[in-house]
Amino acid sequence: MVLAAGDYAREVCKRPAWIRGIDHRIEAQYPGARDLTKSSSTAIAAEKAGVGKGGVDVAEVYAPFTHQELIVLDALKLPAGAEVNPSGGALAAHPIMSAGLIRMGEVASRIHAGEARRGVAHATSGPCLQQNLVCVLEGA
Length: 140
Description:
The two termini are 18 Å apart. Helix 2 (40-49) crosses helix 3 (66-76). A hairpin with a 5-residue loop joins strand 4 (118-125) and strand 5. The chain contains five helices and five strands, in the order H-E-H-E-H-E-H-H-E-E. By secondary structure, the chain is α/β, with parallel strands linked by helices. The protein has a single domain (6-139), classed as Peroxisomal Thiolase, Chain A, domain 1. The chain has a five-stranded mixed sheet with strand order 1-5-4-2-3.
């Protein structure tokens, strides 16, 4: 993944994927101190990143366990029709410490290819979805 200033991004890529919003939230480290059936940090990060401010064509969520995908999708509140994990997500391949960045790259590549106009990438770390980052990417 390459981050570049606007002018340069347009020079090297026909359809750049712009980061329109990004937020990272952390919950209590001790799992007994929170409701593990919800991810309030994902919900807050999604709101602050602007997930609800426009449509979402594609979402890539970092959920290395099947039950976590349900929790994250509930927290993101994606619109009906959004394609989720067309890459297969972290369940298909889980390179630890890079799986979250790969989610961003997957959304960006769909935007580059013209398959999506706006997408959401999610990354997590820590025990039981403790830390969550939500990034909104958009094509021009």
